[in-house]
Amino acid sequence: MRLTKQRKIILDRLKKTTSHPTAVEVYDEVRSQMPNISLGTVYRNLDILSRQGMIRKIETCGEQKRFDGNIDPHLHIMCTDCGCVRDVHDELNLDLDDLTSIKTDFKITGLRLELLGICPGCASDK
Ligand SMILES: [Zn+2]
Ligand SMILES: [Zn+2]
Q1: Which ligand is in closest contact with the Cα of 70?
Q2: What is the pTM of this model?
Q3: Which fold has domain 5-68?
Q4: Which-ligand-closest: CA of 118?
């Protein structure tokens, strides 16, 4: 698959960070390498990359969408104080079949789960 130069730089940035940046944060970072890039272009490339399955779009964890270069299945935990998002690498076995007992007339196709907590930085501020 051919990547445009811009898209490759955006992808590289996301692969190198575990901070789960928002589109605006990605934009701020890649501008050092591509001073002329627009926020709209960053949005568009993030969208294409996530549709191609090369990055993950996190729709939970706060009001703004965040992006993750790590596409392996993993859980996220969000600090309710500062809003930072971290990975949780513990195994949690959730089976879609377990959800069939939930009373709804929808056909359940997925589950979004985010953990909430206080990050170590915020906890030590108190
Ligand atoms: Zn925090
Ligand atoms: Zn993650």
Answers
A1: 2
A2: 0.79
A3: Arc Repressor Mutant, subunit A (1.10.10)
A4: 1
